What we know:
5-stranded mixed beta sheet
Amino acid sequence: MYLKNKKQRTFAGIILVLIIVVLLIFIVPLPRALNKPLSKVIRYSSGKVMRVYLSSDEKWRIYVPIDNTDELFRKSTIMYEDKYFWLHPGINVIALLRAFYLNIKAGEIVSGGSTISMQLARLVEPKPRTVRSKIIEMFRAIQFELRLGKKRILETYINLAPYGGNVEGVGAACLAYFGHLPENLLPEEAAFLVSIPQSPVIRKPGNIEEGIKARDKVLKIMFKNGLISQNDYKRAENAPVPMGFMPFPMESQHAADFTMLHYPYENDIIISIDEDIQKKTENIVKSYQKRIEELGATNISVVIIENKTGKVKSLIGSINYYNNDNDGQVRGFYAYRSPGSALKPFLYALALEKGIISTEMLIEDAPHSFGSFAPINFSEKWDGLISAENALSQSLNMPFVIMLQRTGYKDFMEKLYAGGLRGQRGFDDYGLTVITGGMEVKLLDLVNFYSCLANGGKYKSWSILENESVFPDTLLFRTGAVFLTLKALAKKGRPDAPKIENFNFPKTNVYWKTGTSWERRDAWSIGFQKKYSVGVWVGNFSGEGAEGIVGGIAASPIMFDIIRAIESEMDKEEFDWKYDALDDIELTELCSYSGYKAGMNCIDKEYVYVLKNANPSEKCPFHKKFLIEKETGYRASPWEDYKEGEVEERILIIYPPSVQRIMGNKGKIPSFSPKCAISIESKSLQVISPIHNSVIMIPSGIKDASYVMLQAYTSSGQGEIYWFLNGKYIGPTISGEIKKIIAQPGEMKFVIQDKTGESKKIDISVFEN
């Protein structure tokens, strides 16, 4: 009975101990060092490493999933380090007994008998090699087996194993020794990497004899266990071992830094940067360094976006990342800079959509001030009048300021915001200057907005992650508007590119626009074909301007060289949306001279492409009909009685006063004869309509069809007459011009005044019948 009870107590004691051990295994926290800080790895779209950053504890430690390592390396590691890894529970008792025997025999520690699980415990919790330490390692090994599992143990071990210096883990080691990650290894590479963790100080590169000896020992084990053939074994034995660490990749630094900034919690990122495109672009940028320095600039930034996907394929922040004198580490593609005229294509497309303009509509190009804002053209010359299409291709400022006034600031800013363009100030803070560079933007965002044009008006956000889903499209512009806009952007003649014939144009059409900021601080050139959109900025990060910092001179040659270097067969094809665009436009009859809707005085007309349901509604303001004295050519006087045949109707082109000055005083209103001016000196202002104290009856049901006709004559100044109704200014007319306004029931009190200050008061009454 006593023996039986003793056996029971012993058995119960063993069970209790086991329970306590198991509880401790799951209660005691795993070592924090199992999750050591990792190096950040940025890769090209192909998966090749672009750049590696030191971990926060100053180690090169690249995490590589076990399934992404070479199979021969995995098998050899187990065969060399722990042959029975898949069989034991974390402790190999036979190996421990053998090690104990060898150590007793040698009188010192010559063998540890440690399993991979125990070695992992020693890696994460380094301790002196004592019996107590070995017991702790054994506990941790069992804990790892039960809580992590075999695969995770092996994965963690190979990612934390020491490989010499501050290099830890097979990922960093393979990159440091062989220049690539351990996905596919030659037998000699795998053997060398397997051998190092056993004694990293002795076997690090540079100690050639020890390195060869250790590697060959692993090769022999590989061959004996059938992991490699005899031919591979012999060849690998004759291969050299690395002489030292290779420099870790530090390519495309601006793109890598930019990715780190946006994804700080990711350790291994494959980005969309195409290595071939990136390096071609870098070489072209470097080749222009001397040229732009001659022009007064020190830096170049470039963005290339794939139109179909919105993926960023190249990012250049500056010419030289390491040039501190020129702020080389500034990411120029993400800095706010004034775009000059680069936003004009988007206003043009919007104005076409709203029917504000036609491509052939003449717009004023003459000096004019808008409060303190007085825009001038790059050439400092004026055309007087110019078609909207040519105003875009030549990037004239005044026509686009006028276009913005007509189109609406709010609508344009909302379109910019929808396209990812935002300045540093508020929505309402830019005013008309926004179209000439008043709102600073980022090159990356601007190129992406141009990509919207390449996609037929469909916008998608840019993306720099290779495996990120393509963002959905948002239709910002009608395809017809984009089609007509590209017609202007395809023209090659530009005032800021005087030597355009020397450019190396690509083989296929490029749609492009330049921009030059105020005081010539920023030069831009953005162009696109079917596949890619390319944007180039040239200038100084300090903001210093120079005479040569001009879009067409400094930036465009670089842009065209880049496009030539990366253009593909796809660029020879038509845009996929072309036929949708053709279905979105129609021919409409407009005044052949002005491009406006033809008025009653417009004789010659032509058909012009406009967007469907967006025909210009404003009638031609230039063709005016006048009664002219046949004999003198003077304008017929309203107070003169002429005989039949002495006067005739003529249709003349009349320009606004500011345009007249540019056009050599052409387009003026015909003058009255000197005789007429003298005879009416005392009555220079005469109102023909409405008649004072007259009454207008509005028939019931047709209120909107009842008008008051306004007409007056004056012999003063340019013949301008100013009309006021019930105390509010309602606009000007020129002498003899007829203007109609809607009749308003009640009293309508007019004050009419000319430039001499002479005025008339006319009161009429309007009643509804």
